[in-house]
Amino acid sequence: MDIISTEFFALYLVTAVLFFFFNRRIEVLIVSILIFLWSYSPLIIVSVILISFLSYAVLLRQNRFTKTIGITAISVCLLIPRIFGFNLISEPIVFFGLSYYGLQAISLIARSKIKSIRFTEVFFAFSNPLTITSGPIQPVQKLSNSLNRTGLSKERQFFTAIKYVLWGVAIKKGLSDLLYTYFIQSTYFEGSTSNVNTLPLIIITGFYIFFDFYAYSKLVVGLALLIDIELIDNFDDPYSNINPKAFWKNWHISFSEWLKEYIYIPIGGKRRLRFFGLSLAAFCTFLVSAIWHGFTLNFLVWGGMHFFLFSFATNTKSSKFYHFIIFYFVTFYAWVIFLAPNWSVGISIIKGSFANWVWDPVFILISLLLIPTYLFIVRFFKYWTTHSHQTKATTIIDFLMFMVLICVILLFGGVESKSFLYFNF
């Protein structure tokens, strides 16, 4: 049952109606969650209950030693499958995102107090269909506060949620899936790059990855908001920043905050511990980030490139133009390594951007059009959702935008749908 499938939306609609008419909101959600998990495998239900119970049991002890043991055990279970390529627990749970469970469990154990959390809330945090595959990593306390509120979304919040949902689906179908079908699939996975310069493809790659992540983030925030649950909006406007710190504050925000809180600061990020003049905390942070995505040469190099970028920005005082060139060059070439199915494909595409001088005009045109498209999408949506005062003019704009988004979804609904990149991690 995919998150953008008809079956999922039907289940979600029934859940939302019951959520509104019944006071026992958490129970309604849990029944819906069990149906969702059962559609994949009954074993997933057992796995989620087990993980929830173990995390809750650690919380019951409420002492530093037990928490340390619990976090260490979870970290081992999280890292070993990534490093050695085998699974310590059932295959279905890995399909749903072992990384998410590990990060959520560490966050839960480190932050939470047992007096303020029930087991049902812990179970919901681990099994929420909107976050189970890939996040955002939401503190259980915030989820608990949302669940304990009364009433469905107010009218304005309801329309804001609809904006998020339609916007997310439209970006996925009308941009991300199109870019994948006509540019990414043939070049990254079918190897048809030998006769053209791949520099425009590298620009397309960076925007494809952003639009796919961005669409998923908007979709799940909107679906959650419909039933009055607030989730972190994980993607904002990262490419408008040439400072790596600002970039990561706008890219996969909940994961970046998790790395900062549990890796960067504990190792001494604020104290700037140095190793050969470089930040040890930053090195460890990007190393963990790379392994979290996968213990492969591609991801390790990707993490190393961002560590270089972070170190360069921190230790070098150059002109803004120089920083601008270095930032976008390293960031977009790093995305090639990130997305490539193996090292040889990534290197081939990078070499092609320097070696081949046969330019494909379609690639060039699309790569150039994606820049203003990106700026319009991120900035218009931010304006549309934060300045929607109830006037006649804004009501007309809302109606027209709803019609446009629905037409985009219907028009491109027939394009082969690719699973969200989020689901790979």
> If helices are DSSP runs of H or I spanning 4 or more residues, what is the number of helices?
17
Chain-averaged pLDDT: 78
What is the 3D shape? globular
Identify the strand order in the major beta sheet. 1-2
What percent of residues adopt helix (DSSP H or I)? over 70%
The fraction of residues in strands falls at: under 5%
- Oligomeric form: single chain
Summarize the biggest pleated sheet.
2 strands, antiparallel
**What Rg is obtained from the alpha carbons, in whole angstroms?**
22 Å
Total beta strand runs? 2
Low-confidence stretches: 86-97
Distance linking N and C termini = 18 Å
The secondary structure category is mainly alpha
| Strand/helix succession | HHHHHHHHHHHEEHHHHHH
What can you tell me about this protein's structure?
There is one protein chain. This protein has helices at residues 6-21, 25-38, 42-61, 64-84, 91-111, 119-127, 140-147, 155-188, 199-226, 244-250, 253-267, 280-293, 297-315, 320-339, 343-355, 361-386, 392-411, and strands at 274-275, 278-279. The chain is mostly helical. The chain has a two-stranded antiparallel sheet. α2 (25-38) packs across α6 (119-127), α9 (199-226) crosses α14 and α13 (297-315) runs antiparallel to α14 (320-339). It is globular.
